[in-house]
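User: Here's a protein and a ligand (magnesium ion). What would the complex look like?
Assistant: Let me lay out the input and then the predicted complex.
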Amino acid sequence: MTAPAVRMRDIHKRFGAVHANKGVNLDVAAGTVHGIVGENGAGKSTLMSILYGFYQADEGSIEVDGRVVRIRDSREAMAVGIGMVHQHFMLVDTMTALDNVLLGAEPDWRLGAARTALRERLNALMEQTGLRVRLDAAVEDLPVGERQRLEILKALVRGARVLILDEPTAVLTPDETTALFAALRGLRERGTTLLLITHKLKEIMSLCDRVTVMRGGEVVMERDIAQTSVDDLAQAMVGRRVATGRRVPVAAGSGNEVGGVARLDLPDSVPSRHPAPLMQAEGLRWCDELGVARLDGVSLSLRPGEIVGVAGVSGNGQTELLDVLSGLKAPQAGTLNVDGQRFLPDDWITPSRARELRVAHVPEDRLHRALVLPFAAWESAALGYQHWTRYGRWAWMKRGAMQQATVQMMETYDVRPRNPELRSSKFSGGNQQKLVLAREAMAEPGVLLVGQPTRGVDIGAIEFIHARLRAHRDAGGAVLVVSSELDEILALSDRVLVMNAGRVAGELPIEDCHEAALGRLMGGAVH
Ligand code: ADP
Ligand code: MG
């Protein structure tokens, strides 16, 4: 039997009190695609960073093609044929694609003749792999998918035989993902070994030959793909059974399809069968400091009892849309109707006015906008609602009431640990998100605007958060969900808007949302 391309033995790594890798063993057969999955904090990136020489293991050994190696930095990793495509590309924007490949290469490559030779090698490589990049374009002018191809070419041209990809599809449209996977399959044919980190189990199933599941710093499962399923993987990741099936769209008000989750008790004043939209926006236009229209004539309405999903590759106006609807930004043109009130650009809705009109907002960037990290959980839980008379008239009364309310939120939303005195920063991503959602939902909103509801959230908490959003809808509220995860949009929405270049490229009822149709709209095709 031939030696594995990569063998990691009994790898331990500690960061202070955190034991991030606890005796991890990993064998990756040459010429295969090997997936690594696990919840946030499982230790995947740590393990890959050790393989790439970014961290040193405290204990354990690494073998490449049967030989024990020491990898102390990325140069040494490259020297034994290991390359990495990072989640955030390590490219210099103002330089051309070709110069980026030259950067950090062997000094003699920078000479004119070597430059020509490199160009030829890259051209040949592009021909063989189908990974096309315009070598003379500045990186800043390249779309994301092309930058990613450049990163891959850069690793390959330097002799990578093992390529580590960290969440490579997070930034891609479905079409780009399909193209990338085709190219990766081609690389495997040519004998390249691929290590794929992803939290998208469908990708693991479609591309990988074998998969390793990590939990709490340990390997909890390793299987051939043929011997496993999405449900097995999900269960191994969280250590219990979770529902991963796609939701069959149900009529509003038909009850909660996720067992064990109580419906939100909204007061009677929320119209449960009100025909009029709870929120309606017309012709929103918002330009940034450079005069670029980030929102360019966006109209939408949110009706009681529906979840509207906003899909799109990130950066196509989704963030600005949430900011404008929640009052964080005033548009240059457009109107907004909420609760019988009409807003025009020169007197736009403000965040506090929005709260009064029962429009709640769970921002995408919750770390910076939704929580004050050094504050205790109960202080973050009251943010934006401190003035509420329900918290009492005097500071000391409010403090007690807020703490009590936080304990209540933590119970209802299963926030762990249940400690209102703990600093906001000490909770995991999933628990921070549950806390923000609890705060916004407790205000009994009619409209809930949610950005990236489950980004950085582990799979157990995703299920919970989705159930709460559906419960809000089923109780007669309206939910606008912006997410760059197509699966999430498909799982939650009754209706989907696709944004491209600041416009609504198309609107589809959930029944018509095939990935191909959505992908075309995300790529800019007009519906
Ligand atoms: P994953 O990639 O599976 O999400 P990581 O390998 O990034 O997980 O993290 C594993 C654990 O190690 C986490 O608890 C994380 O907080 C911790 N950790 C990772 N890198 C560092 C670091 N540089 N310093 C301190 N703790 C770290
Ligand atoms: Mg990671």
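Summary: The two ends are 54 Å apart (CA to CA).
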